[in-house]
Every structure is written in C-alpha cells, then in structure tokens.
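Let us walk through a complete example step by step. Step one is to write down the protein sequence. Step two is to encode the small molecule, magnesium ion, as a SMILES string so that its atoms and bonds are unambiguous. Step three, shown after the inputs, is the structure prediction itself.
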Amino acid sequence: MSAESPLVRFENIQKSYDGEILVVKDFNLDVAKGEFVTMLGPSGSGKTTCLMMLAGFEPATNGEIYLKGKPINKVPPYKRGIGMVFQNYALFPHMTVAENLSFPLEVRGISRSERETRVKRALDMVQLGEFGGRRPMQLSGGQQQRVAVARSLVFDPDLVLMDEPLGALDKNLREQMQYEIKHLHEQLGLTVVYVTHDQTEALTMSNRIAVFDDGIVQQCAAPAALYENPENAFVANFIGENNRIMGTVKNIDGEHVSVTADSGDNIVAHKVNIENVGDRTTLSLRPERVFVSPEEGSVDNVFSAKVEELIYHGDHIRTRFKVCGHDDFIVKVPNSAKHSALQENNTVNIGWKVEDCLALDA
Amino acid sequence: MSTAELTLTEDGIPLKEKLAKTTALQRRRALLLTLPLVIFLVVSFVFPIGQMLFSSVHNDKVSAVVPTFAEAIIQWDGEGLPSEQIFEIFVKDLAAAKKVREIGRTVGNMATRINYEMPGSRSLFTSTARKAKKIEAPYKENLIKVNKKWANPTIWLTMQRAARDITPAFYVAALDLKYDENGDIVRADELYQIYLNNFIKTLGVSALITLICVVLAYPVAYLLSVLPLRQANLLMIMVLLPFWTSLLVRTTAWIAILQTEGVINDMLVFMGFISDDGRIQMIYNQTGTIIAMVHILLPFMILPLYSVMKTIPPTYMRAALSMGAKPLYAYRKVYLPQTLPGLAAGTLLVFILAIGYYITPALVGGEDGLLISNLIAYHIQKSLNWSLGAALGTLLLAVVLILYWLYNKLIGIDKLRFG
Ligand SMILES: Nc1ncnc2c1ncn2[C@@H]1O[C@H](COP(=O)(O)OP(=O)(O)OP(=O)(O)O)[C@@H](O)[C@H]1O
Ligand SMILES: [Mg+2]
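Step three: the predicted structure of the complex.
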C-alpha cells in the first residue's frame, strides 16, 4: 500500500435492491486520510445506500470498495473497524450511557480498567462526563447525539461514518453540534464520511462535498468551488440560491457564449458544460451577483427590469424583478442609501458580469 | 408568590378546587362507562371466586342432616366413646333424618361426607338409619348391637370433625394428607396420593409447553417483525388461524393426525420407518396433550414477542456490528435483552393458561395426560365433591398467584409488554 493511496476508494460502484432500478449508478469517490467528505443530495438519491455499502450492511451489486487499499466487499461489517453514527443514534436503550460506550471496547476484549478510562475520556470529550450512569432515554436529543458520536469514536476507528446525525435536532442545537463535530474532526485528525441533505451543513463542515442526484455524483469538490463553479444545472440549483434563464446557444467564442433567451434578449455568459451552437442552455445567476442601476461599463449585460416585489431583510432587500421574460428573478439588493429609492412597479436597469452568468446544460 | 399562598382563578376559587370540579364530571362519566364491565367482573369473577374460597372450607352436610347431634358431638372431649346422652341424640336425629327426602339433606349426603374421610363407612350410616326408629334405650348398647363398628372411637372422632361447618378437611385431602385414628394429620396411603403428584406433573408439563412455545415462537415472531408487510400479513394470518377455528375442531384434527391409525403413523409405515405393528402412540397420553396444547397456546407467545420485536429498529443490530460485535454476540447483548419484556409476558401468559387448561387434556390426554384442572372438573361434575374441587381450585389459584408474585420480584410486572 503506497502512502498516497486513499483511505477509502469507491470504484465503479453500482447498487440495485430489486434488480430493476439502479439506486446507485456509477459511484466513484476517493477519501483521503483526515478528510471530511460529505455526501449531499435530495431524499432518495442513494446517500444512505452508499454509506451502508461502505459499512458493510449492504453488498455492492457491482464494483469494489477499498479500505486502506484492500478490497472489502467480502469483509463482514464487524471486521471493518468503522465507527458509525446513525440518524436516530441507535443508542442501546437497555444499557446506561457508560455501558453503551463500553460496548465496542468489551467486544475487543479490552480490560475493565482500560475500558473505564477510555469511556471517561470519550465522555469528557463531548462534555458529558457526569452522565455515564444515565439511560439514553433520560438524555435530551442533543445529549444523545453527543453520546452517539462519543460511542463511534471510543474505539479509535480509522474512519467514522455519520448518516444525517443532526437531522432530528432543532436549528440552534444543530449549529452547535456542527461546530462540535467539526472541532472533533480537526482535534483528533479523524476521517469522516458525512451524509446530509442540508446544504448549509455541508458547506460549513466539509473539506469536500459529493453532490448526489439520481444515483450519480454530479460534482465532487470543495464547498467554495461548488458554489462558485457548479459544473451543471443541478449543482447550481441545489447549492445556494440561483436565478435561471432558459435559452438557446447562438454563438460560442472560447470561454464566452452568447445566448438568446426565450424572451428574445441576448445574453453573454460563461461557458461551462454546453457543447454546440443551437443547444438548449440554462443560465445560472446568483442573486447577490446582480447589480441594480450598474455604472456604465462595469457589467457586460444590462437589462431593464420591472420591480415586482420588495421584501425587507434588514441587511439587504430581497427584490423580485421581471426581466428577460421571467417574473421570479431575485436580486439581493444591499441596504444602502443608493438603493433606498426602489419602489414597486418602477422600472430600473439591472446587470451582471459575464463570469457570474454560467451557461449550463438545460 | 409564596408557595403557602393558594393559586386562585379569576373568580376567586382556589385553582385546585376549580380543577377538581371541572374534571369531576368527566371522571364520573368515564366511570359510568366502565360500570357494565365492573358489574360483569363482580358477577362472573369476584363472586364465583369468593364462592369457591368459601366452599373449599365450608361443608354443612352433617350439621344440616343431624343438627342436634352435630351441636352435641362438638362438645365431646374425644376420650373413649361419647356419653349415652350423645348416643341417644344421634339415634333420634338419624331416625328423623331418614324421613327427609330433600336433596342435599339426606342421610346419604351425610354418609358421603364422612365417607370422604373414612372410606368404607358409608353403608354403616345408611343401614343403621334404616333401623334407627326401632332402637331403644340403652342407646349405646343397642346401637353397637345393630353394628359393632359403632364401638370404634375413630368413627365418632371423624363425625366430630365433620360436624363443624368450617373445616380444613378438604385442604388436608387436596394435599394428599389424611387424619389418622387419633385425629392427627399424616400422609395419605400411597394409593391415594394423587393430587400433589398431579400438581407437580401439571407444573412440569406447563413448563415444558412454555419452553417449546418459546423455542417455536421466537423465530416466527422475529420473521414477522422483519418481513415486508405483505408476507408478514400472510404469516400473521397463519399464526392467528388457531384463534379462528373452534377449539374442538382443532383438537379433533390433532386426533386425526396423531392417532395410531392416523396420518403421521400411516406415512411413517408407508415410508418404512416403522413397521405396521410398531406404530407410535402419540395421542391419548402426555405427548398428545403437549402437542395439542403447544399448538393452541403458540399465538399467546408469538403476539407479545412480535409486538416488542416490531418496535426494535434494525439499526441497533447494525450499530452493534459496526462496533465490532460478532452477530451472535450482538444478538445476545443487544437484541435479546430488548425482547425480554415480550418474552416474559408470553411466558407468563402461556404458562398460566397451560396450568389451568382443561378441555384439550380431557380430549387427547388419555390417562397420564390428565392435568390438575381435569381432576377439579372430575370432582365438580362426577364425584360431586364440590368442596374438594374448590380446595384444589384454590390451591391452583394460589400457585398462580405465587408465580405471579415471583415473576414480579424477578422481572417486574410493569416491564411486561403483552401487546
Ligand atoms: N432496503 C431497501 N430496499 C429497496 N429499496 C431501497 C432500500 N433502501 C433504499 N431503497 C431505495 O433506494 C433509493 C435510495 O435510498 P437511500 O436510502 O440511499 O436514499 P438517501 O439518499 O439516503 O435518502 P434520504 O436523504 O431520504 O435518507 C430510494 O429510492 C429507496 O427507495
Ligand atoms: Mg438516508
């Protein structure tokens, strides 16, 4: 095994439950040691399935999964040494918190005194040192969550899998736990494969995000790259907010394409994944990259737009425009003196730069 | 606000009082709804059990037939033979009783009562009663002349005991004990020691049935809990099928299957496993009782187990495996303990039902398959010794209550999950 070989490698993984539909179509992913990789995707896109194949609870229908360079398709789950946090925590209700944590150590035949110190250390790590004698039922959701995390880490696994571990928590607690998990990841140098369908969670926590849809990884990249340079319309739409304008490619000039929108307007955009002149395309524009009443020459596209609706958000005003045949064009207008004059039904100029307008597949 | 101060509502009434008032009506209505059930329980349950407890210690067959004598003999000191006076009362009472035709108050009834404790004494009473009118003073001498058995002090001791309406005699009999000639309690002769052995046998058979039910029901319940809904429903119907056919039909079916000329034996002979005269006796003995009762009681084990297993998500086992536990270890440490409430409930249910089961052993049990409830039924229906039947029934009830108490001590009734 070479030093560079990834800790986990999915190679051409396919999975079908019923022999008719491929739930996972062609999954390839490398996870390096110490990385925090998130699988993000809508419900039913096959995230849990991939995690279960890695953990060994579901066989891969085709392809091979490698752990530390060794194929593990035939290794039973209890020999894989992978820590796991389940969506509903799966804390054993008939055992105390300490017994729960001690379970993986007992299995490994670790002596009683050693077990006690390690359980203590793991509980302290998640700030639950006092709660060892309680039953899981006597803990709050957030505390149970932390116990589940501690239990997955107590036997020092090479790899920790977390399947929507924060799904059941309220917003505040979720944000706090995101921070704590991230902190543990950095502190202990863990390798984490994380599953969520909450894009904010994915963006704030991960080194890399694999965006899933329809059994295929649409894009796997660092959070900033996903947001700034989505490779296709699904990713652009799924990560963050975006305005979409449908059109047809009229001319391709290197990086730039000119597109005729369905309304007839001509728009210059940045080429991403379109091939030929005459193709249908989706133009993607982030709401914060659109300028209202731009200065002459500062942007490449300028259109006159009618203000349909203003929603006050404090730091910005969410403005809905009618432009290029779409009446749901959202712009985040900074709350500055310059723009306070915007009124509903006014018509103003709005514009954007070429590199902020991505020409993606239809 | 200080804690001593009462919380008041808007109109100045203490909050507690107001709350009680508003909920009282609701509660009364709810109680009224349960009234039919309460009445039903009292009539069909509390009252008969009280009746049973009472008749197990109460028997007035002697005092009802020869009332004056009963009062007199109770005063007797038990030394030698009773006085001439008591003999006189006895003879006169007996003569008077001979004329009574009312069922339950005849000399025969009294004779039967005393015969329980002194087997073989029945004819002594009936024959003497016939001559009682002609017996004259001196009564002691003449009575003994009629039958010299009257000179035996034991018969008078026995009569003294039986004259008391409240008597432990039936518990003495139910526990395979008896009174000896001096009125001391000793073990009954071996030939008459049937009840204790039968109690032990009943407990043993019930335990075996329960064990078989556990072994059979556990995998079925597990399968039920993990199968997809369609298959699970089908399996559930098969589990419940015994509930939908009459007990008699099922039992008869077992007879058809198990008897020496039955399906199983025919198959075994046909396939050459046994010879035609080596047919196996599988019914009209304990084996038959066990097979048929396991079949009947199995749903009572499966259902509580299933209801508990259904609530155990598969992630627990997965979590255990992911932590490195081998499947068997994970099962033992994680799955099994969580099914205990259902297992305990099922075990209790099946065991208690088995202990008191009557119809199946009566039909397929033959001689050695009879259980304690069959003996109780015998005394209630055939021998008409209701008091002994009641005493046996009370003992059975006591055994069940003790088991229940033990169970509560060991497992905790509040932990049981029946469904
Ligand atoms: N045991 C199973 N048997 C049959 N089909 C299954 C099974 N588990 C999942 N599927 C199907 O596989 C697809 C992917 O499921 P999966 O659980 O991997 O989705 P997911 O991405 O985790 O979704 P979610 O965000 O809702 O958890 C779904 O269409 C689902 O119906
Ligand atoms: Mg999932």
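Step four is interpretation. The pocket of magnesium ion (ligand 2) is lined by residues A 47-48, 163 (CB under 6 Å).
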